[in-house]
Amino acid sequence: MADEGAGRILAELSQVDAQLHDCLLIGARISNSVEYLHRLVDSYKNNEDDHSGSPKHRATQLASLRSAIGHELGKLQQAVDAATKICGWEASTPEVTPVESGIQVLLDIRTESQVDHPPVERIRAVFNPEDENTSIENELRVHEEEAVQRRR
Amino acid sequence: MTVPGDETTQAIRGLSQVEEELLDCFFIGSRIGQHLGRINRILREQRMRESGDDPVDEDIIISLETIQATLSSARSGCGWNESDPNIGRLVKGLQELVDLGIEAPMSKVAEVLDYTNLTRELHSHQDEAVRRRQ
What we know:
The structure holds two protein chains of two kinds.
Chain A: H1 2-13, H2 16-49, H3 55-86, H4 97-112, H5 120-127, H6 136-151
Helix pairs in contact in A: 2-3, 2-5, 4-6
Chain B: H1 6-49, H2 58-78, H3 88-99, H4 106-116, H5 118-133
Helix pairs in contact in B: 1-2, 2-3, 3-4
C-alpha cells in the first residue's frame, strides 16, 4: 500500500521539470506586468498634468491608458492564479508574504472597481509607497536575489 | 535490495524539495523578466535622444550582468537549456544577448533583441505557461 502511494508521488515528481519551467515563466509574467502597470500609471499622471495639447486628444489618451491598465490588471490576476496553483505562491508562505500582499492590494483594487475605470491614483500610490523599500519592485528584488543565490 | 518504505521516504523528501524549487524558479523568472523589460525601456528612452552608436548605458550593463547570473541559476536550478524543444530559442537568445558584453554599442543590443525576437518570445511563453496552469 505504502509503495503504491510512493509510486503516485514519484509519478508526480516526473512532472516537476515542466512545472519548474512554467513557474519560471509565470514569475517573468508577474514582474513584466508589475513593471508595465507602473509605467502605465506614471504615463497616465504625465498625460493628466500635460495641458499643452487639445483637451479632446488628452481625453482619448487617458481613456486608452485606463483601458490598458484594466487589461494589464486582468493579466496580473491570471498570472497570480497560476502561481498560486502550482508555484506555492500564497500569503501563508513566509517567503512570499510582503510582495504577495503588495500585489494583492492591486488585485483588490481591480475587484472593487469597474474594468474600464480603474482608480489610477490608488494604483499609483501602491507603486510609490512612503517607504520605498516596501515597494513591490523592491520586495520582488530581494526574493529574486535570494532565489538566484540558492539555485546557483 | 530495496527495503520496504524506502521509496516512500525518497518520494516525500523529493516532494518537499520541489516546493522550494518551484518558488525559487518563479523568482528567477521574475528577475529575468524584470531585467529584460528594463533593457527594453532604457533602449526606448535612449532611442529618442541619443545615437545608436553610443556605448551601452551603464544600467543596461547591470541588467545584462544580472541576466547572465540569473541564467546560470535557471540552468542549474530550473532545467533551462538551449536544446529544450520548447524554450531552447529563448535561452539561446538570452545567452546571445549577455554574450555581447560591455563593449557592445547600444545599436548592437537593439539588433540582437530584434532578430532573436526575445521579448515576444518570452511573452508568448509566459502566456502559454499561465494558460496551462490556470
